Amino acid sequence: DHEGRVIRADYDSFSIMNVYMPSGTSGEVRQDFKMKWLEEFYDYAHQIAAEKTHLIIGGDFNIAHQEIDIHNPAGNKNNSGFLPEERAWVTKFLDSGFIDTFRYLNPDDQRYSWWTYRFNARKNNKGWRIDYLMVTRNMAGRLKRADLLNDVVHSDHCPVLLEID
Questions:
Q1: How many domains does the chain contain in total?
Q2: Is residue 1, in this structure, part of any structural domain at all?
Q3: pTM score, whole prediction
Q4: Taking the CA of residue 73 as centre, how many other CA atoms within 13 Å lie in the half-sphere pointing to its CB?
Q5: Host domain of residue 28
Q6: Is there a smaller number of Cβ atoms within 10 Å at the N or the C end of the chain?
Q7: Contact 82/63 with Cβ under 8 angstroms?
Q8: Does 79 map to a domain?
Q9: What are the catalytic residues?
Q10: For residue 135, what are the β-bridge partners?
């Protein structure tokens, strides 16, 4: 896209991409752009997965998928990043052959990857899990560890980690 939101590297047996998905927090125009972008990315990711078989996608998705992924689901149900249509897109993406590696390996962990700079959110652990490492389903048996490095403070996000055998 013209905003440079995807970087991809191809290797013999896999492809890896980093994404910075749009935020819809600045109004309807950007929310509409976000939803259109998500649909185009869905098609693109499936095209690459078909060509390379093994695909790793990491980055800021700007969407908290489930209630466990956000500190205040009821209070954020009408906010971009937790809208029903955004969450439905993540479900559709996962159902189409991808794995959310952190949730797959840590099904009950309520941990976050992003905190607003306001209100001491990080100190009080009032965050959102919006940064993901996803892989094609055929890589499930190779997953060893997926983690959120919450103690690493370099921005309003923390690093996400994935170990693959």
A1: 1
A2: no
A3: 0.96
A4: 11
A5: 6-164
A6: C
A7: yes
A8: yes
A9: 60
A10: 56, 99
